[in-house]
Write a structure and sequence with these properties.
heterodimer; A: alpha/beta; TIM Barrel; two-stranded antiparallel ribbon; 17 helices; B: alpha+beta; 5-stranded antiparallel sheet; 3-stranded antiparallel sheet; 9 helices; 10 strands; 36% helix
Chain lengths: 413, 283
C-alpha cells in the first residue's frame, strides 16, 4: 500500500511553490502532486527534491489531457516538447510505438523528480464512446507495462480525468467502471470535472452520489484511490475508503477543469474572497456572508476553523471593523484545513470513518440552522446548504453496503 | 466434400505411433481419441481446420497450453499439422487425465461445500496464471474439469481462449462469443470482445462453484431463461438451499463472482482466492 492512512496532498497550481514550502515547513501536508503547466521542469524538479528531502510524498501528474492550449511552462518538459507541445496530435497516443515512446519520456521525467509512484498520462474522457475509452485503455496499459518493466519498483497509478456527465447515470457509470477497472494499476488518480457552481463544494444529489460511488467502486476493486482536484467532499471520500485527496490553494484548484480557470472575479477587477470553514463544510463569502453574520450578533468564532493562520486572516476578531485582509494566509488556512480533514480519519475503521463524517455533517447542519436565526438565507448566498442533507444520505448508502462484510473488508484494505 | 468426422480406423491409420484404442467423443470440428505414446496414456485430438479462423484458433490453443505452466492445466505433449483426405487437420496430443469430469463426478457423488472449496480454489489458482499471461479461458464448465481418483482437480480444453494482447478471432458481428452459453458471463454472451477479461472467467467459476456446493446451476429455474437470468443477475443464493455456518459468507462471495457488472466482481483471481481462503479459514 502506498498510503497507510488517510492522506492529504497539495495539488500544485499558481503560486504553489511558495505555498508548498510553507506547508512543508509547518508540517501541514503529506506531500504534493506536481503538474507541468504551472512550473517549468527545472523548478518542479527542485521543488520535488525539497519535498523528498522532507520525507513526504512526491507525485507528478503529466497532464496530457489538455490539447491545443497555451501552457508555456509545459513546453519545458521533454515529453511535451518532443510530441508537438501545445499542438500535439491525437495520433501520438493512437499508434503503439509513439505511445510507448511518450510513456518512456514521461517515466523519465517522473524518475528525475524521484516520484514515489508513477502517474500515467491520460486524455480527458468527456463521453462514453468506444474510441475514447479504448484510447484511454491503450495508453494506460502501455504506461503500466513500461513502468513495471523498465521503471523503478514503485506503484503505478492510472490517471482518470473524466467529465461528471459521463458517470452521473448509474448504467453509464457501471459501463465506464467495467472498462476502467480492466487494466491493473496499483491505484487510480481520479479527477472529475463538474459544471461551475456545483463544485464548491460538490452538490446535486445525483452528482455527489455518482462521484462517491465511482470512488467506492474503485476501492472495492482493491485499487488505492487518490481523489485529485478535490475539496471538502473529502469527508465523504474518506468515509468510503478513499486513500488520499488532493486539493490546491483555495478556490483555484479545488476542482478539476481542463480548460483551467480564472480566479473568481466579480467584474471590474474585483476579486471575490471566501473563507473556508470546515465547521460548516463550506466556503463563506467574506463581505456578504461573514460580515452580515457578525453584524447580526452571531459569534463568528463558531464557524472559524481553527488554524495557525486563522488570526492572520482577520485583522481583529471583528471582520466588520477591520475588513478582510487579502492575505496569502487564506490559502495556508485552506491547506491546513484540508490537512486536518485527513487527520480526523486516521486510525479509524470504515464504520468509524462513516460515523466521523456523519457527526461532522450533523454538527455543520445544526450550526447552519442556528446561523439562520441571525441572518436570512439570502445573506448567506455563498453557503450551499444542500450538502447537509445530500451528503448525509450518501453516507447512509455507504453504511448499508458495508453490511456485506466482504465489501467492508475491501474498503478497509 | 467437407470432412465431417474422423473414424477410429482412419485415425489409427494416420497416426500409427499413438496406438489409438478408442474414439472418445466428437464435437464441433473435433474428434478425440484415446491411446498411448512414448509409454504414457494420451488423448489425441484432431481439429479440422477448414477456415482461417479455425486454423488460427487451433494454433492459439496450442500457444495457450504452452504458455500456462501450471500442473492444473492438462499437459500438451505434441502439436502438429496433418492432412486427411485432402483436408487440413491440426493434431494435439495431451496427457490423459484419469478419473471423471466434474459433471460425472457430481452425478455420482453429489455436491458438497468441500468440493466447492476445492474446485474453486484450484480454478482460481490456475486462472491467476491465465490472468498474468493476459489470457481468458472462456470455457470454464464442469465438463472441462476433471476429478482424478486421487481427488486432484485438472482443467481441460483451452480451445476458445482469448489472448488480450492479440486481435480477436471471433467476428464482432457474431451474436455471442465462443464458449458455453450456460456458463458464460453477460459480456461473453454479448460478444463484447473489448470487455472480456479475467473477470469473465471468474463469472463461470462462480457458476461452477455454486453447482459443486448445491448440485444445481444457480441461474436455472429462476423463472427466466438461463441467459436472461445471467443478464439480470437472478441467481439462487446459498441461503435458500444450504444449511451451514458459512452460508452467509458464501453468498457474499458469490455476489462478487456472479454480478452481471464486471466492476462488481472480484478484480482478479487472486483477490477472489484471498477472500475464499479467509472464508475457508472460518471453518
Amino acid at each position: 500500500m502506498m498510503f497507510d492512512e488517510p492522506t492529504y496532498l497539495i495539488q500544485f497550481g499558481y503560486n504553489g511553490q511558495t505555498i508548498v514550502k510553507r506547508a512543508l515547513q509547518n508540517e501541514h501536508t503529506d506531500g504534493v502532486i506536481l503538474s507541468p503547466t504551472d512550473y517549468e521542469f527545472e523548478n518542479s524538479t527542485q521543488l520535488a527534491k525539497q519535498v523528498n528531502n522532507s520525507g513526504r510524498t512526491v507525485l507528478f501528474d503529466p497532464q496530457y489531457y489538455i490539447p491545443r492550449t497555451e501552457r508555456t511552462a509545459a513546453q519545458s518538459y521533454p515529453y511535451f516538447k518532443s510530441k508537438g507541445g501545445d499542438e500535439f496530435e491525437t495520433v501520438v497516443v493512437q499508434r503503439k510505438p509513439q505511445r510507448e515512446d511518450l510513456c518512456r519520456e514521461i517515466i523519465s521525467v517522473q524518475d528525475e523528480m524521484e516520484v514515489d509512484a508513477y502517474i500515467s498520462p491520460a486524455r480527458h474522457i468527456d463521453a462514453l464512446v468506444d474510441r475514447k475509452i479504448n484510447e484511454w485503455k491503450d495508453l494506460t496499459n502501455s504506461f503500466i507495462k513500461i513502468a513495471r518493466e523498465e521503471g523503478r519498483d514503485i506503484p503505478v497509478f492510472a490517471s482518470l480525468p473524466v467529465e461528471g456527465d459521463v458517470i452521473s447515470h448509474p448504467d453509464e457509470r457501471n459501463e465506464f467502471l467495467d472498462y476502467v477497472t480492466s487494466p491493473n494499476p496499483d491505484g487510480f488518480y481520479v479527477s472529475v470535472q463538474y459544471e461551475m457552481g456545483q463544485r464548491y463544494p460538490l452538490t446535486g444529489a445525483q452528482d455527489v452520489h455518482a462521484y462517491v460511488d465511482l470512488m467506492k467502486s474503485l476501492r472495492m476493486n482493491q485499487f488505492e484511490v487518490i481523489a485529485g482536484h478535490s475539496h471538502q467532499i473529502a469527508h465523504l471520500l474518506f468515509a468510503c475508503g478513499v486513500n488520499a485527496f488532493a486539493s490546491g490553494h483555495y478556490k483555484n484548484t479545488k476542482s478539476f477543469d481542463i480548460g483551467r480557470w480564472e480566479p473568481d472575479d466579480e467584474g471590474f477587477g474585483r476579486t471575490v474572497i471566501y473563507y473556508y470553514s470546515d465547521e460548516i463544510l463550506n466556503d463563506i463569502r467574506v463581505e456578504q456572508g461573514l460580515q452580515n453574520l457578525h453584524a447580526s450578533g452571531f459569534d463568528i468564532s463558531r464557524i472559524r476553523t481553527p488554524s495557525p493562520y486563522d488570526n492572520d486572516l482577520f485583522a481583529s476578531t471583528s471582520p466588520e471593523s477591520s475588513e478582510w485582509k487579502l492575505s496569502e494566509a487564506s490559502w495556508d488556512h485552506y491547506i491546513y484545513a484540508c490537512y486536518e480533514i485527513s487527520r480526523k480519519y486516521r486510525g479509524q475503521t470504515i464504520q468509524e470513518k462513516i460515523d466521523t463524517a456523519k457527526e461532522h455533517i450533523n454538527t455543520g447542519s445544526e450550526l447552519y440552522d442556528d446561523m439562520l436565526n441571525y441572518v436570512n438565507e439570502d445573506e448567506l448566498e455563498s453557503v450551499d446548504s444542500d450538502v447537509f442533507e445530500q451528503w448525509a444520505s450518501i453516507l447512509e448508502i455507504v453504511e448499508e453496503e458495508i453490511s456485506n462484510p466482504l465489501k467492508k473488508e475491501m474498503l478497509e484494505m | 466434400m467437407a470432412l465431417q468426422r474422423i473414424s477410429l480406423e482412419r485415425a489409427q491409420e494416420e497416426f500409427p505411433d499413438h496406438d489409438l484404442t478408442e474414439h472418445l467423443k466428437s464435437g464441433g470440428q473435433k474428434d478425440v481419441f484415446v491411446g498411448s505414446w512414448d509409454g504414457e496414456e494420451i488423448v489425441l485430438k484432431t481439429v479440422i481446420v477448414d477456415s482461417y479462423e479455425a486454423s488460427r484458433r487451433a494454433k492459439r490453443e496450442v500457444e495457450a497450453m504452452k504458455k500456462i505452466e501450471s500442473d492444473i492445466l492438462v499437459d500438451l505433449k505434441q502439436a502438429f499439422p496433418a492432412s486427411i483426405e485432402d483436408h487440413d487437420v491440426f493434431v494435439m496430443v495431451e496427457e490423459r487425465i484419469p478419473g471423471l469430469t466434474l459433471r460425472d463426478y457430481l452425478n455420482e457423488n453429489g455436491p458438497s461445500i468441500e468440493l466447492g472449496f476445492k474446485v474453486t480454489e484450484t480454478l482460481l489458482t490456475v486462472l491467476q496464471e491465465f490472468n498474468q499471461k493476459e489470457m481468458v479461458h472462456r470455457d470454464i464448465k464442469p465438463r472441462n474439469i476433471m476429478v482424478t481418483p486421487e481427488g486432484e482437480i485438472k482443467v481441460l480444453d483451452v480451445g476458445v481462449v482469448r489472448m488480450l494482447n492479440e486481435e480477436g478471432l471471433t467476428p464482432t458481428a457474431r451474436n455471442a462469443a465462443p464458449g458455453t452459453p450456460k456458463y458464460s458471463s453477460p459480456e461473453q454472451l454479448q460478444n463484447s470482445k473489448d470487455k472480456q477479461d479475467t473477470r469473465t472467467d471468474l463469472f463461470s467459476t462462480g457458476i461452477v462453484m455454486s453447482e459443486c456446493i448445491t448440485g444445481k446451476h444457480p441461474f436455472e429455474d429462476r423463472g427466466l431463461p438461463i441467459q436472461e437470468a445471467i443478464h439480470t443477475g437472478e441467481w439462487q443464493e446459498f441461503e435458500d438451499v444450504l444449511d451451514s455456518p458459512l452460508t452467509e459468507y458464501l453468498d457474499y462471495f458469490l455476489e462478487f463472482m456472479l454480478s452481471p457488472s464486471m466492476n462488481n466482481r472480484f478484480n482478479t483471481p487472486k483477490d477472489a482466492l484471498d477472500s475464499l481462503m479467509r472464508i475457508q479459514g472460518m471453518t
